[in-house]
Specification:
The protein is an alpha/beta fold. The protein has one domain: Spore Coat Polysaccharide Biosynthesis Protein SpsA, Chain A. It has ten helices and nine strands.
């Protein structure tokens, strides 16, 4: 079979409820891309879910890659190892992608001056607390060009750079894009933000922990980046013991 242009990797732990919503949006975007001759494979990296995540993914025609290590970076890497596409793209299972996501990524990556990037996101609901949280993040986004949403790069670069650093319990996506950005700069390439193809991000964590809870993590951020990587089990509880 021909090599897919894009491999979309979806890390998932107990996402049977929201995964179909994401896959519906992926199907629309994939059809639009297919009309232009593009191909996409979808990989669900199942982190030993205790619900029907793997069955839901398989029933929808996704490749299911089982990852046993309890670290989001390891789950992303496990999905990437199962990928065969020229371009790797990563998105969270509780998101919904833009209908033009794959078209936008394909067009961006046809430029030799672009090393990769992200689409950015908007939230599925807003409140005063969420607006303030979002506003606090904007300066760092503007300064670094590092965003969230669908994150993408060439598979060759991902493998050469070693993928996500599995010693990080959180912020592994930020650290990966920072590594990719520095590598690209050495070759006169840059990150891009495809703001016309934003993901609709879930506010599930805010629903569970409160619209202001993110500021507790901001207080710990300096310690996290200075001591680097290993954090307390709080992060494991945050990711692996949600109300779902």
């Amino acid at each position: 079979m021909a090599t897919p242009r894009i491999s979309l990797v979806i890390p998932a732990y107990n996402e049977a409820r929201l995964l179909p919503r994401l896959l519906d949006s992926v199907a629309i975007a994939r059809d639009r891309f297919a009309a232009r001759g593009g191909t996409v494979e979808v990989i669900v990296a199942d982190n030993v879910s205790t619900d029907d995540t793997a069955q839901v993914a398989a029933a929808r025609g996704c490749i299911v890659a089982t990852v046993t290590t309890r670290a989001i970076a390891a789950v992303r890497n496990g999905g990437a190892r199962a990928a065969t596409g020229e371009i790797l793209a990563f998105v969270d299972a509780d998101s919904r992608i833009h209908p033009d996501s794959f078209i936008a990524i394909d067009e961006a990556m046809r430029s030799s001056r672009i090393v990769g990037g992200s689409t950015g996101c908007t939230l599925e609901r807003w409140s005063f607390g969420l607006v303030v949280t979002f506003a606090v993040m904007l300066p760092m986004l503007w300064l670094t060009g590092i965003d969230t949403g669908v994150v993408f790069c060439r598979r060759a670069d991902f493998e050469r750079l070693g993928g996500y650093d599995e010693s990080y319990r959180a912020a592994e996506d930020v650290m990966w894009l920072w590594k990719l950005k520095r590598d690209g700069a050495s070759r006169r390439q840059r990150l891009v933000r495809l703001r016309h193809a934003k993901v609709v991000a879930s506010t599930r964590k805010f629903d569970e922990h409160g619209d202001w809870h993110y500021f507790r993590f901001l207080v710990a951020a300096p310690q996290f980046f200075l001591s680097g990587r290993k954090l307390s089990a709080t992060w494991d509880r945050y990711w692996y013991q949600p109300d779902r």
